[in-house]
Design a protein that fits this description.
By secondary structure, this protein is α/β, with parallel strands linked by helices. It contains 14 helices and 20 strands. The chain has three domains: about 170 residues, 3-Layer(aba) Sandwich (Rossmann fold); about 70 residues, Beta Barrel (Elongation Factor Tu (Ef-tu), domain 3), CATH 2.40.30; about 210 residues, 3-Layer(aba) Sandwich (Rossmann fold).
Amino acid sequence: MLKRSDDFTPPDPSQHDAEHVPAKKKRGAGAKPQPKLFVLDTNVLMHDPTSLFRFEEHDIFLPIITLEELDEHKKGMSEVARNARQASRYLDEIVTQARGPIEDGMPLSRHAADNATGRMYLQTQAINSTIPASLPIGNKADNHIIGVVMYLQKHYPQRQVILVSKDINMRIKARALGLAAEDYFNDKVLEDTDLLYTGVRELGTDFWNQHAKDMESWKKDSRTYYRIRGPLTGKLHVNEFVYQEGDRPLYALVKEVAGNTAVLETVRDYSSSKNGLWGITARNREQNFAMNLLMDPEIDFITLLGQAGTGKTLLTLAAGLAQVLEAKTYNEIIMTRVTVPVGEDIGFLPGTEEEKMAPWMGALEDNLDVLNATDDEAGDWGRAATRDLIRSRIKIKSLNFMRGRTFLNKYLIIDEAQNLTPKQMKTLITRAGPGTKVICLGNIAQIDTPYLTEGSSGLTYVVDRMKGWEHCGHVTLQRGERSRLADHAAEVL
């Protein structure tokens, strides 16, 4: 039971063992430091149910209020409800397999390959602790959990007690009271997204001096290939673009990396009108690289990052229409996106699945207008017929109905992918059947999903994990091409 500071009386030391908390361990002069004790907030379990097994040799403690909150959130079909149910199943598995009294802690290791070697402790009795008078007790679960952390820190000073929460305000409150508090970092791919793989590498001015020795070159299908050896080859990834500006510029794709050798293939120039796709040409170097990936039938998975106005959706649709309507590589285009509103939710929408998704697909309509306007000779009737043809080959789908589906020979576009969690991203990508290309578009600076950050977004996750695979490509688009107003606003606002 939590008491305010003015009502607090020190608990009887003889009662400590009955409190059912992690036992004190004596430390000698040469003893190894004890494992840390992490107190988990409910939002950590609802964000990642497998967090129970992510603390390696350290122990975790679950306040009883955490179980109460899991129970409150388990109903429904949302991702949070599913995670709450999964966390409850994991807890049931741990408790069921435990041998001995629960108050002695339960091993987290489920099998020999499990990294979790610590123990899990459940709060099995009321804990007497002091809460500052400024913090209301009532039904505020955060303050109950903070009270538990204060109790553990006070009564077990030889152990490092740390609160783990995705709630920034709760971490601030805990630190203000002198408690150690951390975010849940295990799902973070990178600490600094500036280190995220861009898919593009500039070659230094001395590149050929270092790599031209014993170089081989040949031509095939109007492309030039170079087999190079040198210090840089070990750092290159397959399907990474390299470029060198100057009198004799080089724009190439890394096709192969083996030991200290690499094979470079020159890219097609989509900035030329003769190579344009539905009247769209590349306006900068990164757009040209992106179009090379989008038109390569050997690339099954593509991620395009970039701020608003860099051309991600327009290039992807132009390449998709060229391959669906002209080359007939794919049967149809399927477009979906995460429906997270920027402002207030617009509420219930009547109609079919496609009609319900229509308000979220303004970007698609805008880009189709641009693509349809490129044919100046067609006239109004011709453009209307073309638009009807295009719309008949583009299907709009909701993410809510993706589970269990398999897409065959489709061109699947996932827009606003930065709002997906790594688990949702895996669910979507694994829908791809034979002959399907998946393109993920997004801007990790515009994340609207609660508890997701640039470092833990599903888009960041797939960019980092999929790099180097021979059938995957990535480009970070740098320059905005929307308008001079949009470019200036992006820089100064």
